[in-house]
Design brief:
It contains 15 helices and twelve strands. By secondary structure, it is of the alpha/beta class. A hairpin with a 4-residue loop joins strand 7 and strand 8. Helix 5 packs parallel to helix 7, helix 10 packs across helix 15 and helix 12 packs across helix 13. It is globular, with a radius of gyration of 20 Å. The protein starts with a strand and ends in an 8-residue tail after the last helix.
Length: 298
């Protein structure tokens, strides 16, 4: 029997990394092919030994911008991982990336750091010639129930409030359940996806779709449910009320405006990215049905 290949997972305790480990080990085929080496330490100081001790074949890496809200730190972390992968002869680096919003919009939205920093790492990985695939996570479904979609005073009606029109297409993604499904597909279709971006989302859903799903699942609570398109000032004001600094307020507003005007994925189809999957993705309806924030609703 051939020895198992080592898959190193950075960010193993997070939603994305944890999902990768679960998907790989729960599938008899990939569990028989790969052995997981989980890395949970600060990725600004990646452990080279973890990549070299038993000849790491593949690496999945994700960094958390929101932990320090420092783009330079995130880029340093990502470039360190890329450099180590190059040095250690890793055969397949899967980098959790995002688009360069400043570049894609011609500088119109220059402050979406949590996208642009990951895009800079992606470019570095391409420049140094590491065999890589770039996973592009969609809009986290977990941001909706209890976050953007919650009961608002004084009426306490369930309200989805975002600074975009009701028909804006949002590529919704359950990171905790579905990251691993995409990564497993990337690993098992290596030659097909080397150098490519894989768009990780179930489908495009609009704010109107989200309201309709809520009404279908929870008819009583949904009687008065509505979508509100917020102004820039109101959206930033709500974030300020939640304790977020001006820098983050502007970043998140530009993120939303970019999604409406240019498309989260530049309006690309998800069909090609779905071709590598062998598991069903989580729908927005399924996520809403199990969301803790909606628990007990009728």
């Amino acid at each position: 029997m051939a020895a198992k290949k080592i898959l190193v997972v950075f960010g193993a305790t997070g939603n994305q990394g944890g999902s990768v480990i679960k998907s790989i080990l729960s599938d008899p085929k990939t569990a028989g092919e790969f052995k997981i080496r989980a890395i949970t330490r600060d990725p600004s100081k990646p452990n080279a030994q973890a990549l070299t001790a038993k000849g790491a074949h593949a690496v999945f890496a994700v960094t958390n911008y929101w932990e320090k809200m420092d783009a330079e730190l995130e880029m340093k972390q990502g470039r360190n991982i890329g450099n180590l992968a190059k040095e250690c002869g890793v055969q397949h680096l899967i980098w959790s990336s995002l688009y360069d919003v400043a570049k894609l919009t011609g500088g119109k939205f220059p402050n979406v750091e949590h996208f642009d920093s990951k895009a800079a790492v992606e470019q570095h990985i391409r420049d140094i010639g590491v065999p890589a695939t770039f996973l592009m996570p969609g809009f986290f479904m977990s941001n909706i129930p209890g976050g953007a979609f919650r009961q608002l005073p004084p009426s306490n009606h369930w309200t989805l409030a975002l600074p975009m029109p009701a028909d804006t297409p949002i590529p919704c993604f359950d990171a905790g359940s579905d990251t691993g499904k995409f990564v497993k597909g990337i690993l098992t279709h290596r030659e097909k996806v080397l150098g490519k971006r894989v768009l990780a989302a179930t489908d495009y859903s609009t704010p109107s779709d989200a309201i309709n799903i809520f009404k279908e699942l929870f008819p009583k609570a949904g009687e008065s449910a509505k979508f509100v398109q917020m102004s820039k000032d109101d959206y930033k004001g709500a974030l300020a009320h939640a304790g977020m600094p001006e820098k983050v307020q502007q970043e998140l507003y530009e993120n939303m405006a970019f999604m409406n005007e240019y498309g989260y994925y530049g309006k690309s189809s998800l069909a090609e990215s779905h071709e590598i999957l062998d598991e069903k993705l989580t729908t927005l309806k399924e996520f809403f049905a199990g969301a803790k924030a909606f628990e007990g609703l009728e």
